[in-house]
């Protein structure tokens, strides 16, 4: 994920926010939600490893990291960074059930991800 200060430098190279960014912040985010935080959330969704993880979590009632490793073909220890990113961006969360740690979509993750996947399914069905 891109560092917030790096992203801010890129979008504000001349010290001014673009009109487009100002409109997003005012009209879409209501000057309440943070532009960089929301952009980071979208970047987390678009990750090559995280996108399939989100899909798997959307279809299950929680998965252990070992199950995710098996399903993604990655080493379990390599997934923790991605799972942490999903948690940091409030798209996923860890829960403990019967002494085991499970990962699942957060309420926000569910609200953002399910419509995205539904749209993709509909587009695939149209073809």
Topology at a glance:
Elements: H1 4-11, H2 19-28, H3 35-45, H4 50-58, H5 65-72, H6 76-88, E1 92-97, E2 100-105, H7 107-126
Antiparallel strand pairs: 1-2
Helix pairs in contact: 5-6
Essential attributes:
single chain; WH-like_DNA-bd_sf; 127 residues; 7 helices; WH_DNA-bd_sf; Helix-turn-helix domain-containing protein; mainly alpha; DNA-binding transcription factor activity
Would you give an account of this structure?
It comes from Halorientalis regularis. This is Helix-turn-helix domain-containing protein. By secondary structure, the chain is mostly helical. The protein has a single domain, classed as Arc Repressor Mutant, subunit A, CATH 1.10.10.10. The protein contains seven helices and two strands. β1 and β2 form a beta hairpin. α5 crosses α6. The two termini are 33 Å apart. The model has no long low-confidence stretch (mean pLDDT 90).
